[in-house]
Each structure stands twice: as C-alpha cells, then as structure tokens.
Design a protein that fits this description.
The protein is an alpha/beta fold. Helix content is 49%, strand content 11%. β1 and β2 form a beta hairpin. The longest helix has 16 residues. The protein is globular. The two termini are 40 Å apart.
C-alpha cells in the first residue's frame, strides 16, 4: 500500500548507522598529525564539508543529499579517507517502527491516504495553486489525485514530475561514508531516534491544511520539470551549496513530512543540536552526516556556529 512508501521515504531521510563498529586506538603522539590529516582531506573532498575546531576537538559536517543520479560522477576518495580517520561518525535519526505501528498504519490507511469524504484538492489550495496543480497534472489519465491526501500528492509530484526518483540512483555521501567506516571499524551511531508511534500519529492526526505548504513547494518543483533533481545533484557536486538549498526539490523536502511536521521536525533539529554540542567538547574527530539544508539554510547549524565565533572552514553556504 502507498502508506508504506511514505513511511519508507521518511525512514530514508532519517536513516541511521544501523550497527556501530569499533574504533581503532591511537597513541597520544599521533593525535595532532591525525587531526591535521583529516582536516586537509575534508577541505578537498568532492562533497560539501565544513570543519570546526575547538581545542583538541574537531567537528566535520558533511552536507548530504539523497537520490544522486547513477550516471553523475563525483569524487568520493577524500571523503572516504576522512571518514576512515575519524574517531566517530554521526548519522541522521533512525525511525523505529514496530509491528503494531505498521498494523495501525494499515488500519488507518484510508484516513492517511485520502482526503475527507466529499473534499478535493480545490477545497484546500488557493485558486492560483489549484490552477498550477491542474497544469502539471494535465497528462494524468486518472483523476484520483484530486481525492488523494495532499501529502501523497506532494510526494508524487516530486517523484513523478520533478525527477526525484527518476532512474536508478548512485552512491551518495551517506553510502560512501558508511562503507568506509565499516572497513576502518570506526564507531557509527545515529544522533537520535524517533518512535514509530509518533510517526504514525503525525500521519493520522495532521489536518490536510498542514500539508498545503508541501503541495505548494512540490508544485514549484514539478514545474521545473524532470531534470530538477539532477540539477540539484549537479549543484551539490560542484559545491554550489546555496543553489542546492534554494532548489525547488530541497525546498519541497523541507516542507513535506517529516521535516515539515510541526511536532517531529523540532525533535529532529534538537537531536542534531545536542549531538553537535557534545561533539564540540569531545576529544578527537567527529564526523556528522546531515541533510544539507539543516546545515546551510538561513539560521541553520553553520550560521549558528559562525554566530558563536567559531571559524567554519569549507565552501560558501550563503
């Protein structure tokens, strides 16, 4: 059922390390050289990365995106090397769903997947956005989208019209870092967890009006056409960070569930904030792999670190 596709998409966005490995020990005399080497690798990596140093603590933040086209090449070598020489690596949150959570989702699938009886998208969108939606959906044979949950409409627009899941995807920064960390037996862990019952609750109880910003942003992404996702990935590869954050796809992902949910999103951001604070007082090198918008958006993590007086070294983000 389509509800599982939505839940699965959220789990991908919040995917954690899964199973931590072990860290290699280091001798005191090697520590300074180790830090210098990792920082150099981070600065020349083929992915957007920023380093912040405080005493004997170094934080490397990797701005990650998902769904990189398989035929879009980028340089992962230095990223792999930096990951292998880190002391620990933080990944996005894990969503933990139980059998009871899945059964509840199935039981309430109609509530989650359809608009209330007798309602259509036109009852929630402004005439302007409804007209724009009609235009991007003009080639659809079925008119079922008019009665579909606004969240599902938004996700479908990103996937089918803006190319977010077009073709097979290649390795992204998260894939590369996980493999490198496993080979080097570097400790990996998620910055936090989100309970499955909270995820399902948010899907069931959120009014359709809460998904309007998602649909509006997804319409803008769909209007850019099937190359929108590829253009975003090309900007990421070229370290054009501000362009990635401003891309219609990235804006839509930020407005749609779970990052657009008023209950879950603050929890996700707070867990990252707490993990970064801990890393800044932990000796050695901590690498954090986070959604690029969380880091580089206005008022995001990088702005916050800069405002506190830290020297944030890496590509321009604004």
């Amino acid at each position: 059922m389509r509800i599982f596709a939505v839940v699965a998409a959220a789990l991908v966005l919040m995917a954690g390390a899964g199973f931590p490995g072990m860290t290699y020990g280091q001798t005191p005399g090697s520590q300074v050289s180790q830090l210098d080497d990792v920082v150099v690798l981070a600065r020349r990596s083929g992915a957007p990365m920023w380093t912040v140093t405080r005493g004997d603590s170094t934080l490397i933040l990797v701005g990650a995106i998902t769904r990189i086209p398989r035929d879009l090449s980028w340089r992962p070598d230095d990223l792999e090397a930096a990951a292998a020489r880190s002391n620990q690596i933080l990944f996005p949150q894990e969503g933990r769903l139980s059998g009871a959570d899945l059964f509840r989702a199935i039981w309430r699938a109609r509530t989650i997947g359809l608009l209330p009886e007798g309602r259509t998208s036109a009852d929630y969108l402004t005439p302007e956005y409804q007209a724009r939606l009609e235009a991007v959906m003009a080639d659809e044979r079925s008119q079922n989208w008019r009665r579909t949950s606004l969240l599902f409409v938004g996700i479908d627009l990103m996937q089918d019209k803006a190319g977010y899941t077009r073709g097979r995807s290649g390795d992204d920064a998260t894939d590369v870092i996980r493999r490198a960390a496993r080979r080097a037996r570097v400790e990996m862990r998620p910055v936090g967890t989100v309970r499955g019952d909270e995820l399902i609750d948010s899907l069931i109880t959120a009014p359709q009006t809460a998904h309007v910003p998602c649909v509006e942003a997804a319409i803008a992404a769909a209007e850019q056409g099937p190359d929108a996702a590829r253009e975003r990935a090309e900007d990421w590869r070229a370290l054009r960070v501000a362009d990635v954050v401003a891309s219609p796809i990235d804006r839509a992902l930020n407005q749609c569930w779970p990052w657009g949910d008023p209950e879950i999103a603050p929890q996700l951001r707070q867990q990252w904030a707490a993990a970064i604070e801990t890393a800044m007082i932990s000796p050695g090198v901590t690498m954090g792999v986070a959604p690029i918008r969380l880091l580089a958006d206005e008022g995001g993590v990088l702005d916050g670190l800069e405002a506190r007086g830290f020297d944030v070294v890496g590509p321009e983000w604004k």
